[in-house]
Amino acid sequence: MRWRCGLPAPHRATTSELRALYPFVTPEPLEIDSCYLGREAAGGLFCFDPWGCYEMGALTGPNMVVLGQIGRGKSAFVKSFLWRQLIFGRQCWVLDPKGEYGSLAEAWDAVPLRLGPGLGLRLNPLDVGCSTPSEHAHQRRSELLAAVLASSLGRGLLPQERAATDVALAAAEERARVPTLPVVAEALLSPGEDQARLLGTDTEGLRQDGRQLALELRRLVQGDLSGMFDAETTPGIALTGRLVVLDLSVLYGSPALGLLLVCAMSWLQSAMRAGDGSKRLVVLDEAWAVLSHLPSARWLRATFKLSRSYGVANVAVLHRLSDLRAAGHDGSEQQRLAEGLLSDAETRVLFGQSAADAAQAGELLGLSTTEVGLLGQLPRGVALWKVGQRSYLVEHDLSREELALADTDGAMR
Ligand SMILES: Nc1ncnc2c1ncn2[C@@H]1O[C@H](COP(=O)(O)OP(=O)(O)OP(=O)(O)O)[C@@H](O)[C@H]1O
Ligand SMILES: [Mg+2]
Fold first, then answer.
1. Are 265 and 367 part of one and the same domain?
2. Which of the residues 53, 159, 247, 265 has the least number of beta carbons within 10 Å of its own beta carbon?
3. Which residue's CA is minimally distant from atom 31 of ligand 1?
4. 234 found inside a domain
5. Where are the beta strands (DSSP E) in 351-408?
6. Are residues 319 and 170 part of one domain?
7. What is the 272 CA–ligand 2 centroid distance (Å)?
8. Could you give the CA distance from residue 15 to residue 12 in angstroms, rounded to a whole number?
9. Nearest CA to ligand 1 atom 29
10. What is the pLDDT of residue 224?
11. What are the pLDDT digits (tens) for 68-99?
12. What pLDDT score does 7 carry?
């Protein structure tokens, strides 16, 4: 195979010749009738579908991580992948922090949902898709609140803060069928005697325990981030279209981007739960914004685990694995989290990396020294695919139309 971008091919042969000569080096093809993505170094066409791979036993989970240095073609690959999956009848939801999936949406006749202060669209992150009170719904809301508050505070919650959040949430759940963040903030600021008694304190003590949390929530409720997650979900939002793009570009660059993505993802989760069971890809581009805070990264991992039961394949796009290691300060938990997220994402699409990042990826993903060396040299548009235990080197093939949808170089030319 000769890369169109110039790397010389070391050897030319057909896939079957190579497989006969090097049975343990040339990967077994993914024999599935699915979406074509590009040419494989061993000579064949590379097709991939997470659900197809699951059925054939090549994967036990559908989630995917896409890694690579800036400008290596991560988003271009994701856009063409979504486009082709849409043609195969799948549903695709995208969290788009840079606002770059607009052309894809336009080509599919979908209108991106623009989320930002004052843009008129509200999503209730505490709406977890259960109309009746349940322990499970309470648990999901409680985890979300802990992730949002800890990300916002920049530290983990103290035990008394966790307890104050929990009783405030329970009070909010009694007040409204689906609670909202302002109701929880209000319950934190004015706790009742029953709640205080439950925690062996008085109302003033409980109010003190929850005061800082209430002030953090206030940012989302009345402060600079208000107008997005501070009320019931705007009625009539259609998630029935095959492509849904949630454009958060107004907030790109905000230090709060991670927590906003968590709120938006939480709301999407509720829609998944209430969904029709169709096979769906959920893309989190610029996932480092969520993963660079330990609490939100922890929350995302739990969410990834859950979504498998809804037939959802999550796709997280990030620059390098050190984004995972940079999450928080607790070395051992970062390491476990990074490893856990990676083991939950059995499909890894690895684009070109710096030598240092490639070495780290090699360590965390168990790559061979040849693969680590390769990662440091891959040209734009070429990626090493790890599908479960199998490896493929793939040059992504983008049609002229897809290239137009994927072009992010306009400003550079
Ligand atoms: N397979 C490909 N063939 C030709 N051009 C490509 C290919 N993949 C990407 N490109 C082009 O390279 C440019 C950068 O790609 P892209 O925006 O996908 O990079 P990225 O890795 O997502 O970057 P960032 O980290 O900044 O988000 C785009 O203009 C795109 O059109
Ligand atoms: Mg990108």
1. yes
2. 159
3. 407
4. no
5. 382-387, 390-396
6. no
7. 25
8. 9
9. 407
10. 82
11. 999 999 999 999 999 999 998 999 999 999 99
12. 46
Q: Please tell me whether residues 249 and 362 are part of one structural domain.
A: yes
Task: Judge if 74 and 33 occupy the same domain.
Answer: yes
Q: How many CA atoms lie within 13 A of 205 on its CB side?
A: 12
Q: Would 9 be classed as within a structural domain?
A: no
pLDDT at 371 over 60: yes
Ligand 1 atom nearest to 351, measured from its CA: 21
- What is the mean predicted confidence (pLDDT) over 294-321? 86
Which tokens go with 337?
A: 């989290």
Last residue of a domain, one of 193, 221, 249: 221
- 186 falls within a domain: yes
Q: Is residue 228 part of a domain?
A: no
CATH number, residue 369: 3.40.50.300
Distance 68 CA to ligand 2 centre (A): 9
- The number of domains in the chain is 2
- In whole angstroms, give the CA distance from residue 211 to residue 222: 15
User: Would you state the pLDDT for residue 112?
Assistant: 94
Give the domain extent around 141. Answer: 135-221
Give the distance (Å) from ligand 2 centre to CA of residue 61: 24
Compute the distance between CA of residue 260 and CA of residue 228 in angstroms, rounded to an integer: 9
Of 61-65, 90-94, 280-284, 403-407, give the lowest mean pLDDT range. Answer: 403-407
Q: Which residues line ligand 1 (CB under 6 A)?
A: 68, 70-76, 319, 380-381, 396, 398, 403, 406-409
Per-residue burial over 365-398, b = 16 or more CB atoms within 10 Å of its CB, e = otherwise: bebeeebbebbbebeebbbbbbbbeebbbbbbeb
Asked whether residue 346 falls in the same domain as residue 377, the answer is yes
